[in-house]
UniProtKB/TrEMBL annotation:
Belongs to the ribonucleoside diphosphate reductase small chain family. Its EC number is 1.17.4.1. SUPFAM superfamilies: Ferritin-like. Its cofactor is Fe cation. This is ribonucleoside-diphosphate reductase. InterPro entries: Ferritin-like_SF (IPR009078), RNR-like (IPR012348), RNR_small (IPR033909), RNR_small_fam (IPR000358).
């Protein structure tokens, strides 16, 4: 087999899924199918009451968080999957990616419900104009165009796993805080199921990369793709979202993002002997990430937020 072609090609005369040829991929599809949910399950009645107690500053933060996620969902996710699908004939894989597209449509609908509930059309327009004007937004779009248009199927898979792990990390940290504070229950539920979905999508891209690909790719290239995304996301952390309003320091989130990016690189590494050199600070980063999670858990009643947010 030509080593520059992915192993994700199959007999062109195979018209039905059975008998299943790749059980690990099919198991992943059945797992994503079992976790299917719809936006109709979201109850925002309590959120409407909680919203009244939020300060204008914290409302503005949520506007930015939800708007940024929606903008990314629209600009990033669909393009990578569409590009990948052009190279895939394996029905088990196409089943998963087609279902992933459906789930991402549900994510977009769900966040849209919140934005449409709490912002007027004029306010939404202002939020998206601010996002469009932010330099990291253009950087994200250039990043996705660069790796989506790559001739390397492996690079596209790394990009997909990276999008699910890195982009909007700061936004999810903010939603994690809100969930733990016991406010905005409908948004908290939405965060939980979408975060779970994204983990499934990331793990699937990793599965294909590690176990179903013959194409050569260097660890340096994998690291480049991830590091470019991390640099963009850190711009969001430091220069766009006022995370200090919710008790998150930019330094702590910066370290947590480093931990997550290192973990992703470790999962995708081809030459495991590079591990010690590449991650000399891994234990320290992991400890700091765990400390951040513990601190967030302790702050469930941050400023007694359930009843008083300021």
């Amino acid at each position: 087999m030509d080593k520059q072609n992915p192993r994700l090609r199959d007999n062109k005369d195979r018209f039905i899924i059975f008998p299943v040829k790749h059980n690990d991929i099919w198991d992943a599809y059945k797992a994503i199918e079992a976790n299917f949910w719809t936006a109709d399950k979201i109850d925002i009645n309590q959120d409407l009451e909680d919203w009244k107690d939020l300060s204008e500053e914290k409302r503005s933060l949520l506007h930015k968080v939800i708007g940024l996620i929606l903008h990314s969902e629209h600009k990033l996710n669909g393009k990578i999957i569409a590009s990948l699908n052009k190279n895939i004939e394996l029905p088990e894989v196409k089943s998963f990616l087609d279902f992933q597209t459906v789930m991402e449509n549900t994510h977009t609908e769900s966040y849209g419900i919140f934005l449409n509930t709490f912002l007027s059309a004029a306010e939404q327009d202002l939020v998206f104009k601010e996002i469009e004007a932010f330099p990291a937004t253009l950087a994200r779009e250039k990043w996705i165009k660069k790796w989506t248009n790559s001739s390397s199927f492996a690079e596209k898979l790394v990009a997909l796993a990276t999008v699910k792990s890195i982009f909007n990390y700061s936004c999810f940290a903010a939603l994690f805080w809100i969930k733990n504070c016991g406010s905005m229950h409908g948004l908290g539920y939405t965060y939980e199921v979408i975060y779970r979905d994204k983990a499934i999508h990331r793990d699937f891209a990793t599965l294909l990369f590690k176990d179903h690909l013959l194409e050569d790719i260097s660890d340096e290239k994998v690291q480049q793709i991830i590091e470019e995304a991390v640099a963009i996301e850190k711009e969001v952390i430091y220069n766009f979202l006022p995370l200090n309003l919710i008790g998150l320091t930019t330094k702590a989130l910066d370290e947590y993002l480093d931990y997550e990016s290192n973990r992703l690189f470790t999962d995708l590494m081809v030459n495991k002997s590079l591990n010690e050199k590449a991650f000399s600070n891994e234990k320290l980063l992991k400890k700091r990430a765990q400390d951040l999670s513990k601190n967030l858990e302790k702050n469930k009643d941050y400023n007694n937020l359930r009843k008083k947010t300021d």
